[in-house]
Amino acid sequence: MKKRLLSTIAALAFAAAPAFAAEYPSKDIQGIIQWGAGGSTDAVMRAVSPHAEKVLGTDIVLTNKTGGVGAIAMKYVNAKKGDGYTLLMGAENPQMYKVLDLANIDYNDMIPVSILARGTPIFVARNDAPYNNMQEMIDYAKANPGKVKVGSTGPGGLTSIVMAMVDSQVKLDVTSIPYDGDGPALTALQGGAIDVMPSVLGASIEHVKAGRMKVIGLMDETPHPLLPGIDPITKTLPGLEKLLPWGPFFGVFVKADTPADVVTKLSTAFNESAQQPDFKALMDSRGFTLMGISGKEAQDFLTAYRSVSSWIVYDAGFAKKSPEEFGIKRPE
Amino acid sequence: MDALSYFAMSWLDPSLLILTALGTFLGIYVGAIPGLSVTMAVSILISFTFSWDVNDALCLMVGIYMGGVYGGSRTAILLNIPGAPSAIATALDGYPLAQRGEAGEAIGLSTIMSVIGGFIGIIVLAVAAPNVSEFALSFQPRDYMMLAVLGIMLVGSLAGDSLAKGIFAGAMGMLIGTVGLDPLTAEERFTFGVTELWNGINPVAVMIGMFGISEALNQLHHLDKMAVKQKIDRIIPHWSNIKKYFGLSVQSSTLGVVIGALPGTGGDIAALMAYDHAKRITKNPEVPFGKGAKEGLVAPESANNAAVGGAYIPMLTLGIPGDAVTAVFIGALFIHGLNPGPLLLTEKPEMFWFTVGNLTLANIFVLIFGLTGIRLFAKIVECPKGILIPLIFLLSIVGAYSINNSVADIWWMLGFGVLGYFMKMYGYQLGPVILGVILSRLMDENWRRAIISEREDLGSFFLNLASSPLSAFLLTSIVLIFLSQTPVWARWIRPLWAGKEDKAQA
């Protein structure tokens, strides 16, 4: 009896060992999500993955590996084999790692499988704030130095870059209060702990619709269909034209030495999944612009994003290293 | 009338009923295994239930949540390994009860109290959700900081014989909690350049090591001692017992709902604060706290289950998660095409009553599944040490690994286990260490946020402490609780009060 049990266990162990030299994918794929459960990156990735699973014909096991502004997940994926079985599912943050000295790698050192969608940054303010648009906010901040409390998500986060962009045009003395993410900061805004918060449209749109906060600015060159009557910021600060459009994005990445045919398979799967009606509907309702791009197009997008963001934080004075050190060109 | 039909939806539909039951059953075991967290289970279920109908998916997840929060008490009572941080306070008196041969009754009592707590949470959710969520939002960083200070004062309750050793242990916990990237500036703290330390030391790994492993090591001293015979004739607690603790349970549950509804705190802090509250208001416990006081079991178990209803309050009314699990629920609703936010209740009013009904149902299943199989579980404690100790090690290692699928956490867990063993040997209590780890982040972040908002001006910081009624109330509580523990209180203030009472009587 004991013998039979042992041999069964041994057989099971062999069956569980990965099959060698089979066609990709021959086993489960690990998807490492850079941000925590319940965040927007998490929601996007969990919505797109089931479609990709169908196309690829295998399971994608999603794990949240948070911390270090996403650098921990990135380093983790790059420490694994470049065989396409470990995917990095992340947001825009790594494009700032080099100048902020958080890590010596960014997305330009990996292969983009698919850039799924991009968001539009807006400025929201608590309802009883004494300003209703960017010009009024700027005037108020100038008249009351240090009075305006702006929520922030730490150096290199969306808020810091948006604020640095504004700062490049007009110097404002505001108090910046860091939070763990845009969720907690938007909560604090409703409680009156902060006055203004640059946030991605999708994160705040439901609160705006319900009248719990107001939109005072749109970080774009053109008006947005979800925000009628809100002028693009370039009307107030025309100097920003050369930096916009700019916005956070969600993408799936693999290690640089992943074989080309594996990347192609993954790209097809994720780009197809991004076009599914329910994913499209999710992105629309959250105010994200669907992209679903890969290859050269994706690389160009990443390079442009990195160039704008790196230089803007460098000029604002909170970069630890010059973008020049890494050969990052200044945006023209 | 509509509300009632939505409420009863999951009760009447057989498939929803079965899914809720299944979820609750699974939840109890997910909750009982340390390291397997409800958050993780629910996240996995999001992908798993992607193609399901949204109601089916929600039933399963709500069941897991309700069952999971309760399940944490099982291993806390039986093996001294809390299944989740919200069961830490349960272990403090639950495990000593099991050691005295009353594991069965302890589990029975904790089940009843969890269910009572659960119901109170649900009732508050059903009748006062909008008011509570507005109240929860009004907490400013300085208020969160004061909550953390209130929590830290628990060191006094947990310190055991020597307050100095308790403070030392608490400070050590705080230090452990600060390892990693600074949450506000992303600067490295105590990481020595090691990327693996960026995320800090996982509190669950510290918890499993300090409670589970150190206890197992401690048991090695008593290998020759026979295991305590468990009394299993009485599982469902006496009616008189339930009546006796009902008041405490209601108070703890109220505390649990509020702490649960706050977006920055959850069941773990609620349970610990309820334990402290119980210790403070219980004048003459039958058994001293820490040695198996039933009050010390009733309070945290009511509070952590009440926190479930609490966490749903901001989530359903405003789309703001009350804890990590409801954050995942929000993600799930998005994926199922709903827009969880402040408009959810206007756009989908059925969601609210459906959830309330479903939580109620899950809570009833907790009662049913909780009270069955206790005899079997209680036997675990009677296991010979030769089986029990390896079992604790196995469970601890699996638990530590499954937090983050990382081997590093196993080493941390074992390291803290050995450290905890020596600390216990030299009379240091381990409760304050865990307390420090849990509270350090809350305190650290919010103190700094508060002082940054005042532009680092201490004067206006203290002025604001007194300006808002909530802050003033919290500050007064801190001062009073602190004073009541000092000789000043006993010598001058108490006689003053006593004097007044005398006069009133005369």
From TrEMBL, chain A:
Keywords carried by this UniProt record: Signal
Signal peptide: 1-21
Organism superkingdom: Bacteria
Any single Pfam family the record assigns to this protein: TctC
InterPro entries: BUG, Bug_dom1
Family designation: Belongs to the UPF0065 (bug) family.
Protein name: Tripartite tricarboxylate transporter substrate binding protein
Species lineage: Bacteria, Pseudomonadati, Pseudomonadota, Gammaproteobacteria, Oceanospirillales
TrEMBL record, chain B:
Domain of life: Bacteria
InterPro entries (UniProt xref): DUF112_TM
One Pfam family this sequence matches: TctA
Transmembrane segments: 16-42, 54-71, 77-95, 107-132, 144-164, 324-345, 351-374, 386-404, 410-440, 461-483
Record keywords: Membrane, Transmembrane, Transmembrane helix
Presence of the UniProt keyword ATP-binding in the record: no
All residue ranges annotated as the DUF112 domain in the record: 17-435
Name of protein: Tripartite tricarboxylate transporter permease
Organism: Parathalassolituus penaei
Taxon lineage: Bacteria, Pseudomonadati, Pseudomonadota, Gammaproteobacteria, Oceanospirillales
